[in-house]
Specification:
Layout: H1 2-6, H2 12-37, H3 41-49, H4 52-60, H5 65-86, H6 91-111, H7 116-119, H8 121-125, H9 133-152, H10 154-162, H11 164-169, H12 174-192, H13 197-215, H14 219-244, H15 248-266, H16 272-283
Length: about 280
Amino acid sequence: MLNWLLAPFTYEFIQRGFIASVIVGTICSVIGCYVVIRSMAFMGDAMAHAILPGVAIAYILNGNLTLGALIASIIIALGIGQLSKLGKLKEDTSIGILFSAFLALGVLIISSIRTYAVDLSHILFGNILGVSRNDLIFTAATAFFILLFIIIFYKEFLIISFDRVYAKAVKIPVEFYRNFMLVLMALTIVASIQTVGVVMVAAMLVTPAAAAFILSKRLPVMMGISCLIGIISSIVGLYISYYANVASGAAIVLTATTIFLIIFLFSPERGIVWSRFRRRTRSG
C-alpha cells in the first residue's frame, strides 16, 4: 500500500502536480465560499469560459497563454460589473450577454487555428501532470496574493457578502470591493486552468464550498472545511488521473462531486437521508 502511494512521487512532474493540486484546491475552495454565499456560480462559470478569446489571441501572437487568459478574465469580470451597474439589466442578464459574446468570440478565433486541438487542449481540460516549474511558481505566487488579500480585506468582503445595505451605511465602498472580488476570482480561475482546465474550474469553485456550506454557516469554519475538501479532492483526483490514465481535471471534479453527494445525503445535521430518518422516527 505504501509503495502504491509513494510510487508516483519518484517522478518530478508528479511532485510538481501534487503541489499545484494542493494550491489550486485551496484557493478555489476559499474563493468558492464567497461564490456560494453570494450566489455567483453562474458568474464563475461565465468567467472561466470567457477567457477563451484571450488564450486564442495570445496563441496566435505567440504570447503567453496565461497572460492572455488573465487579461480576458479581468475584462469580463469588470465588464459584467459595469454593465449591470450602469445599465438597467440584472446581473445574471449581463453575465449571460457577455459570457455568450466572449465564448462565441473564443470559438470563432480558435476555429481558425488548425492546430488548436493539440496545442490548446490542456487549457480546456487541464493537464496537471504537465505543470512546469514556471507554472508552479506562477500558481504559488498568485495563490499567495489571493489569500493575502482575502485575509487583509476579510471584514469588508464579509460585510458586503451578507449585508450590502449595512456596508453602505458604514461607508464601505461596495462596488470597489465587489469588483475587487471579481478580479480575485479571475486570478483564481487563471491560476487553476493548468490543473483542472477551463471546462472544470467553475465546478472546483462551487462544489467544495457547497459541501462545506451544508456542514457550517459560519464563514471561517466553512472556509476551513471547503479547503479540506478541495485539497482531498485534488490529491485523490491526481492519483486517479495517474493510475487510470484519465484527464486530471475530470478526476478531481468528480472526486469533489462524490464528497459533496456523501455530505448532501448523509450529513448528521442537514443530510437528506438523516433528515428523512429523523422525521419518520418522530412521526412514529
